[in-house]
Write a structure and sequence with these properties.
This protein is of the alpha+beta class and 600 residues long. The strands form 9 sheets. Strands 11-25-24-28-27-26-30 form a 7-stranded mixed barrel. The longest helix is centred in the N-terminal third of the chain and has 21 residues, at 106-126.
Length: 600
């Protein structure tokens, strides 16, 4: 008889509490916050009371004679908790934070988060791929049946149908598409991480030698995970949060409709009767995890690479493409794009274009910043892709258009006087400090009206270029140029599932390349080290690591899970597509559609 565990969840809050929570956390409606162990969220009423307290009271330095009110709070806290100088401005908000327990008793909150964690644990435990292999590996020391031994957290990794691990960064990117907030890594607990991941001391040292660091993106080393995904619940969490997480996992990582059943090791350890009657038999999670040796992905990766290579050698009709081994095969530059404003729409070049010491002329020369001076990209505001730029060199203007609004224009070139007298703005791109000249109030008002928030447009100053490996950079993130192989795009498009909401016609635009070449084999660009395009020589700086931005349709601003999910699945979590180039010559030059590309 098949053993089936049926996860169930019963609401732990009464209707009045549920309505109160909806009101207090209306600002996060549509978001799914599952990192309460890292930082739980304030209710709206708590934020208002803290603001009123700060506005209506004088909290002076507790060490001064005028700081009597502050001193009283600090001393009261010090008496109960600790010695030393305390963060008194945080202390004043403590009481407002504790007020929630007058509304919802601690015992009820404890039961609430436990029930959510139990439901998620049991749901993950029973999810399997269509070939019967588990979809998740859970790290736990309890069976999530006893509230006295288990809190409101669940740590796990996702497994592929082959048995290989999905890197936690891949899960994080997919979760972001569903507006799910997760924690990944080792959660400041390297000992627990080492124990549950079955890492020896040598494994840990080897991981650090291979580039692993706390908060880094090195999630898989030799096919083994360096950390995990953690979900942690709080008093404001809901059943809807769990359901959205499970929906994301099924949609992004399950190969076909998932099979729901008990894993074999659970059947062996604890029969169906014990689970149904909530018997006292315990299953030691750590021992269960050690029954299976760590899954290595070497074989899976070789199989994936073999599949990719064989597919790249075939045409769409499955016939061998002999051009792949023909020395007379011609690689041609078929399309050229620049992105005048960082993270906004593309401007396609129809013939030839100037090259400067920073790359293609006017490419990412402008950038949008918010009221705090922080660069705004499609990661925060997907509608930026709807800003369509048009360069008009003869009129010396860059025209910007946005749906439902009249266009606005800014100068392509500024006089020396305008640059000298213009207001300088400072921001950061990929952690590097950059500065630019403010483009004025008219375009700022236009942007602010379009997006409903205060925004400004800045242009890189003539002394504001930054070094990037070799050569100067504009406001681009990594390198001067991004090259995309049309054959690689086609290979990917052919594998997007039928019925996907990803528009296959617009996949090329999602990768936001400067140069698109045709006439080659899929993914051959990954082997290049140096190329010549026309008369210009470029050095390959490495592959472009992709994030959730490739899931944004550049014509509509809509988000889809493809092609990022497919890219990660096909290449075992290595979300790389396209290559970065840097021009070896820093003098002026020109590049033209139709130029031949030669590997050097």
């Amino acid at each position: 008889m098949e053993h089936v565990l049926r996860p169930s969840y019963a609401e732990t809050y009464d209707e009045e509490t549920v309505l109160w929570l909806k009101k207090e956390f209306a600002r996060v409606d549509g978001e799914f916050y599952l990192d309460h162990a890292g930082a739980t969220l304030y209710a709206d009423s708590q934020i208002r009371r803290i603001a009123e307290d700060l506005a209506g009271s004088l909290y002076a330095n507790p060490h001064s004679a005028a700081g009597n009110l502050t001193s009283e709070i600090v001393e009261r806290t010090r008496y109960r908790y600790e010695d030393g100088t305390l963060s008194f401005l945080s202390i004043i908000s403590l009481q407002h934070g504790l007020d929630v327990f007058k509304k919802i008793p601690l015992r009820q909150i404890s039961n609430h988060v436990f029930q959510l964690a139990k439901y998620l644990h049991h749901s993950l435990l029973t999810l399997h791929h269509r070939n019967g292999k588990p979809l998740a590996k859970i790290y736990a020391d309890t069976d999530y049946e006893d509230i006295s031994t288990q809190g409101g957290t669940v740590a796990f990794n996702i497994l592929r149908m082959s048995g290989g691990y999905v890197g936690y960064m891949e899960v994080l990117h997919m979760a972001a598409l569903f507006k799910i907030h997760l924690r990944t890594g080792c959660f400041c607990n390297p000992g627990g991480c080492q124990r549950h991941l079955n890492l020896s001391t040598q494994d840990v040292l080897g991981n650090y030698d291979a580039g692993y660091k706390c908060g880094g993106s090195k999630d898989l080393i030799d096919g083994r995970p360096t950390g995990a995904v953690r979900v942690s619940f709080g008093y404001s969490s809901s059943f809807k949060d769990v359901e959205m997480l499970l929906l994301m996992i099924r949609k992004c990582f399950s190969d076909g409709p998932p099979v729901v059943k008990l894993p074999q090791w659970w059947v062996s350890s604890w029969n169906e009767r014990n689970f149904r009657t909530k018997g006292s038999t315990k299953v030691e999670g750590s021992k269960v995890m050690r029954k299976n040796a760590p899954v290595r992905a070497n074989d899976t990766e070789r199989m994936t690479n073999s599949m990719r290579d064989s597919s790249a050698r075939n045409d769409g009709d499955g016939k061998n493409n002999t051009d792949g081994i023909n020395s007379s095969r011609k690689l041609v530059l078929s399309r050229l794009y620049i992105y005048p404003i960082k993270s906004c729409g593309a401007f396609e070049i129809s013939d030839s274009w100037d090259l400067t010491e920073k790359g293609l002329a006017y490419d990412r020369e402008w950038m949008i910043i918010n009221s705090s001076g922080i660069c705004v990209t499609q990661k925060q505001e997907v509608r930026l892709c709807l800003i369509k730029p048009t360069l008009c060199p003869r009129r010396n203007v860059l025209r910007l258009d946005y749906p439902g609004m009249l266009g606005v224009e800014v100068p392509l070139e500024y006089s020396e006087e305008e640059v000298t007298t213009g207001e300088m703005c400072r921001s950061r791109v990929c952690g590097h400090r950059v500065q630019g000249v403010d483009c004025g109030g008219e375009v700022s008002e236009w942007l602010s009206l379009a997006f409903g928030k205060e925004l400004r447009l800045i242009r890189q100053g003539r002394s504001g270029a930054r070094a990037g490996g070799r050569g100067e950079l504009s406001f681009s993130s990594q390198a001067q140029f991004l090259l995309v192989n049309g054959a690689s795009v086609q290979w990917l498009v052919e594998r997007i599932p039928e019925g996907s909401d990803c528009d296959k016609e617009g996949v090329l635009e999602r990768f936001r390349g400067n140069m698109v070449i045709v006439g080659g084999q899929a993914f051959e660009e990954e082997t290049w080290t140096q190329v010549r395009i026309g008369e210009e020589v470029f050095e390959v700086m490495g592959p472009c690591t992709r994030c959730q931005m490739v899931c944004i349709d550049q014509q509509t601003g809509l988000k889809t899970i493809e092609p990022l999910r497919l890219l990660a699945e096909e290449f075992h979590g290595k979300m790389k597509f396209g290559i970065y180039l840097t021009r070896k010559n820093s003098t002026s030059g020109k590049i033209k559609i139709g130029n031949h590309l030669t590997c050097m």
